[in-house]
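Predict the 3D structure for this chain.
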Amino acid sequence: GLGPIFLRINDLSKIDKVLTEIMQMRKQTTQAQYTLYEMGLGGNGASVILDFQASLKDAQQGYGGVHHVAFRIEDKEELDQWIKRLESFHVGHSGFVDRFYFKSLYTRLYPGLLFEFATEGPGFIDDEETYETLGESLALPPKFRNQREVIESMVRPIDTVRSNKTFIKEVYE
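Done. Predicted structure below.
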């Protein structure tokens, strides 16, 4: 992952069961209102940090909120294992979702929080993009490519082209 996932929650016992029993994470440490959980080998990209705030209302989707958190898994076989695991805990889920660039599974394991399990591949490199140009244009699955002009007119552009920028690193002594 890119870094730890931070979740602000109001029920520590409920989310602890979700993370340890269903997600198979390890509770590592608690400092003040923060609790660290890790999966796999642990570390920055394999961590969830809880910020316990008992007075918070349950989360709900809305402007300025995070839509979901994603957990990377290897392949469709592992995705099928997660489907079986969620069903063994009688947890509702989306079932298999084909996103063309990856395969997914969505579930709400805690009120207001949407968890996604997403496969590593097949990835965004295909007939339209190469490794060198990846991320420089909006990637669209084939079924939406004929609507590119309309779709791009509705989203704010983000300049991701590194070749036209100069990056100056600050050095602190």
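Residues 74 and 120 are 5 Å apart (CA to CA).
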